[in-house]
Each structure stands twice: as C-alpha cells, then as structure tokens.
Amino acid sequence: MNSGIVVVEDVPGTQMVDVQLVAKKLDVSVVTVRRWEKQKRFPAGVKLNGAVRWRLSDVEGWIAAQAGAR
Is beta strand 5-7 parallel, antiparallel or unpaired with respect to 46-48? Predict the structure, then answer.
C-alpha cells in the first residue's frame, strides 16, 4: 500500500506528499487542492518523475497559517 509520502534522499529531512494525502489531510477533494494551487491559494507542487508532490513542511506551514488567520 502506498502511504502517499516520498522521502527525497538527496535532501535530508524532506518528505514529499501526493495530492491524495494532501486532500485527506485537509479534508477536501483532490479537485479542490488542484484548484487552490491553480488559484495560488495553496503552495505550488513540485513535479517529480511526472507526478506532482508537495513538501510536507509546506503543507503543514500552510495549515498553520490558515489557523492563525482565523
């Protein structure tokens, strides 16, 4: 089973997550994540081997910023 997390060996401590895990973490649909990214309301993903991934730290930072904006 794929956990949705990829560790980037060249960059110690960097974990990359796929769109399904991002959507699950945010409790929104995959379509919503992609729409927010296109609208620049969410951090841009990074293309790795043809798949878009997000740095877990960027996602968690975005979540914290949203919580602080309330």
Answer: unpaired
